[in-house]
Amino acid sequence: MPDTPFAPVILGNEPGSFPHSVLAERHPAIIRQVRDAFPYGPGQHRALDDLLKSCTQGTVEPLPDDAPDRDRWREWGLPGCSGRSWYDVPWLWSESYFYRRLLDAVGWFGTGAWQGIDPFRPFKRAELDAQETDEELAALDALPGLPEEERAQALLHGSLWGNRADLGFRLSAEGAEAREPAPSLVADDSAALWALLPPGGTATLVLVADNAGRELVPDLLLIAHLLAEGRAARAVLHVKPYPYYVSDATTADVVDALHRLRAASGAAAEYARVLWSAMADGRLTVRAHPFSCAPLPYAEMPDDLRAEFAAATLTVFKGDLNYRRLVGDRLWPPTTPFRETTAYFPGPVAALRTLKSEVITGLSAATESALVAAEARRWRTSGTHALIQVDAR
Ligand SMILES: O=P(O)(O)OC[C@H]1O[C@](O)(CO)[C@@H](O)[C@@H]1O
């Protein structure tokens, strides 16, 4: 990571700012929603009360003595954050630790009956089972008649806009490039992305997934297309080792999404067959590396993960949180070149992201001015703009 006195690390301690509102309002709301969604017992309710108090008015507390990941969190900076207000430590760290503590409170890491019960599962399932998902899967039936490049581009945009989570994704027979999402793209390096994945090549694609449900489904469709058309010989899908940021995808969510696709009809079911057989013969693998839930930027990744990314033809990072971790959770001047912030990365890397936080790099001066003139700062967090950025090396 370059020396960056001009790009301060984002904290959540400024009342009225977006990061502050996440800590002060969104986290308490998540505790409320999780509490309402499960018939938890008194111990879990007490632990949720304690977490609510700690994260809004208290300080960061150490993990319990028997926590299985105590050593890991020590390496990830817990000793330096303990005893400080959740608002005064890096925002990325604070958010990440909140989810770790929430899982503790509901018994995910315990040895009891609630071990491994995902507190966010009802929300993820509801999205996957929604009628909109049926409609999006039915739209796939218009793709098979199109030239490969158009199908590839439509599926790329499906995966990109799938990151807009609550607004769903767009996938149309005409391809997305000529339609509404295109003017919302603040950077579009898709040509460089396709140049790294030519048909009939031997590429290994690593896709670092973000959300489950209506983002993961189009991510899987994109992978299916790349494998079926020989744009990738092998794909590795990185998911989270435990539930995180409410909707982030775990292995269980991959299984749910594959079942959803397999139960559909038409083209969706065909994509499911491609994925199912690619998993069976090892062309598609799922990884749940502990660092996927680390409260740190990818510049601090461990050696085994670095080696894995180094061996890939292209690593694609999906979503806003992964973008923050890829370029560093800092207030970069928006025209800072993307490749400057990813210079540490060991191979070609791409970001597919809708903008949902204040971190941004790689804009042209003209694009930045147009966005500021039209929306002041809103474009940074509204999720209505997106980017495809590539550092091909
Ligand atoms: O699902 P995504 O695209 O990673 O977005 C999650 C986003 O949620 C927030 O953390 C707020 O909680 C964003 O700022 C963050 O990056």
From TrEMBL:
Names of the cofactor(s): Mn(2+)
Catalytic activity entry: beta-D-fructose 1-phosphate + H2O = D-fructose + phosphate; beta-D-fructose 6-phosphate = dihydroxyacetone + D-glyceraldehyde 3-phosphate
Domain of life: Bacteria
Ranges where the Damage-control phosphatase ARMT1-like metal-binding domain occurs: 23-367
Signal peptide region: none
InterPro entries: ARMT-1-like_metal-bd_sf, ARMT1, ARMT1-like_metal-bd
Coiled-coil segments: none
Keywords: Hydrolase, Manganese, Metal-binding
PANTHER family per record: DAMAGE-CONTROL PHOSPHATASE ARMT1
Record family assignment: Belongs to the damage-control phosphatase family. Sugar phosphate phosphatase III subfamily.
Protein name: Damage-control phosphatase ARMT1-like metal-binding domain-containing protein
The species this protein was found in: Streptomyces filipinensis
Lineage: Bacteria, Bacillati, Actinomycetota, Actinomycetes, Kitasatosporales
